[in-house]
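Lecture notes, part 5. Sequence design as translation. It can be helpful to think of inverse folding as translation between two languages: the language of shapes and the language of residues. The source text, in structure tokens, appears below.
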């Protein structure tokens, strides 16, 4: 309000609906009677004759409190003008309250702000949302952006003002505006805040979901833009995920900071693909999920049927029946206190079903490029790759090398220098009509890998599983990778060397076709799928 009052083209009104609020609610304030005697208390009159009445300047800025928007006010209040919502973290607001008179959720007004936002959005009049911390950190950029959204020119005078009471303030200013009167501009947020009172903890828990919802719509500046990147598939912005024992919206799909997957990557996972209303190789993936959990000595696991139902319910809620992918994760669960020991895991496992619209992640028509990483694949002496665990740093380090070389992925060698797999997939080569793939001693024996090995045999091709040196891949006629995320992907270049003639080889094409036919025929049907056809 102080900021807009500095403009030479704007007049400001301080809570013009305050008297109407006191009259309608009967709320007690030290200045109640004086305010009711001096301010217009009829909401209809305030909206039509004061807020939208004639003015002396080009613009009028009205400051409102969310709780003062009561039922029965004219629609003009929401339909006309342009709106912005200022939010502040409940941690900071609650800490500022007098310990003797703790507020209620309705006093804080977060629920009312969400209601106002939703109402305006549904009317096609979506408001700007400004976070007070961002405003205080970079007031000029934030105000300039706000003015752009409001369709008015920014003025440098909005950054500073004189200290002391202001003539446009309401009579309640002496009670509430003491710190504001001491200010001359937007001061940076305090680096260290005071301790949060434990007596207000439940109120904080109630408030945060409303604040988090509004924060997703905060007016972006250079800092917040970096925190809101463009999604690869826009439709995934509104996906629903299973976390724990419920389905929640994307932005609410979170695990506890005490969960083992956060504390130490202590979880197991599977990647599932959805084709034509069916989950491909579901039983095989569940076999490996539970085998991995057993190898890691998980306790209190959900039943196999429970996991299946969670998968089906998540897919049905999202309407995902084709060209979708699931990241299925089972963590050791939440701990009672931070630490490594599984003895702290007393809540049972946490199940996560993350379904996304996700076509194959590689170019399976033109092919991909690989480089060889210096990072070696884990040995079973250290961590057995047959356990499909979430501690993927070994793979991630190799992937970083691939990214730095502008390659699609990176080949990982075992301790003896033989090819193991890539950072994300199993790998095959074709030489003189014979198909070969490395032993699964160091690599994950992938389900797609096993499927393709069966297809090779069914296609009457020669299959060899053996140690393979890197130079054999460099000189192969064809190379391809396999995995649930990318299916069967041809490799056209390794370490700068062209594979074969640089195109997708005939055997690779043949196996791609056979794999595609298999995905059309096999899979566990998703209940109710036919209802959506």
């Amino acid at each position: 309000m102080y900021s807009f009052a500095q403009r030479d083209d704007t007049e400001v009104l301080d809570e013009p609906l305050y008297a109407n609020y006191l009259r309608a609610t009967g709320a007690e304030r030290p200045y109640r009677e004086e305010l009711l005697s001096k301010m217009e208390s009829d909401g209809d009159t305030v909206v039509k004759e004061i807020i939208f009445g004639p003015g002396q300047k080009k613009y009028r800025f009205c400051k409102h409190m969310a709780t003062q928007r009561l039922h029965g006010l004219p629609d003009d209040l929401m339909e006309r003008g342009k709106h912005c919502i200022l939010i502040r973290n409940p941690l900071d607001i609650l800490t500022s309250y007098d310990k003797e008179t703790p507020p209620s959720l309705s006093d804080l007004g977060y629920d009312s702000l969400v209601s106002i936002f939703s109402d305006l959005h549904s009317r096609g009049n979506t408001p700007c949302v400004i976070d007070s911390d961002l405003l205080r950190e970079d007031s000029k950029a934030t105000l300039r952006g706000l003015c752009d959204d409001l369709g008015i020119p920014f003025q440098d005078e909005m950054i500073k003002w004189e200290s002391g009471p202001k003539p446009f303030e309401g009579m309640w200013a002496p009670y509430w505006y003491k710190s504001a009167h001491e200010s001359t501009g937007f001061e940076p947020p305090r680096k260290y805040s005071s301790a949060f009172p434990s007596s207000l903890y439940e109120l904080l828990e109630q408030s945060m979901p409303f604040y988090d919802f509004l924060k997703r719509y905060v007016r972006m500046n250079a800092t917040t833009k970096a925190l809101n990147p463009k999604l690869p598939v826009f439709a995934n912005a509104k996906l629903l995920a299973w976390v724990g024992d419920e389905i929640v919206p994307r932005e609410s799909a979170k695990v506890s900071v005490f969960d083992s997957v956060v504390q130490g990557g202590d979880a197991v996972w599977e990647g599932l693909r959805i084709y034509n209303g069916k989950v491909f190789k579901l039983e095989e993936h569940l076999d490996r999920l539970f085998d991995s959990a057993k190898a890691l000595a998980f306790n209190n696991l959900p039943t196999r049927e429970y996991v299946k139902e969670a998968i089906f319910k998540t897919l049905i809620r999202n309407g995902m029946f084709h060209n979708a992918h699931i990241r299925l994760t089972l963590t050791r669960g939440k701990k009672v206190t931070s630490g490594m020991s599984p003895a702290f895991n007393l809540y049972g496992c946490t199940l996560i079903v993350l379904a996304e619209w996700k076509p194959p992640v590689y170019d399976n028509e033109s092919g991909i490029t690989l480089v060889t990483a210096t990072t070696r694949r884990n040995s079973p002496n250290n961590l057995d790759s047959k356990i499909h665990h979430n501690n993927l740093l070994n793979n991630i380090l190799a992937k970083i090398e691939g990214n730095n070389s502008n390659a699609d992925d990176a080949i990982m060698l075992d301790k003896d220098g033989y090819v193991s797999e890539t950072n994300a997939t199993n790998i095959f080569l074709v030489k003189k009509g014979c198909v070969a793939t490395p032993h699964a001693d160091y690599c994950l024996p992938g389900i797609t890998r096993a499927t393709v090995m069966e297809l090779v045999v069914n296609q009457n091709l020669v299959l060899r599983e053996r140690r393979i040196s890197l130079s054999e891949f460099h000189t192969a006629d064809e190379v391809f990778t396999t995995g649930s995320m990318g299916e069967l992907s041809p490799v056209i270049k390794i370490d700068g060397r062209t594979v074969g003639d640089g195109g997708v080889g005939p055997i690779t094409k043949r196996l791609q076709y056979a794999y595609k036919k298999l995905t059309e025929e096999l899979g566990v049907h998703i209940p109710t799928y036919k209802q959506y056809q």
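The translated text above is only one of many valid answers, since several sequences can fold into similar shapes. Residues 506-521 form the longest helix (16 residues).
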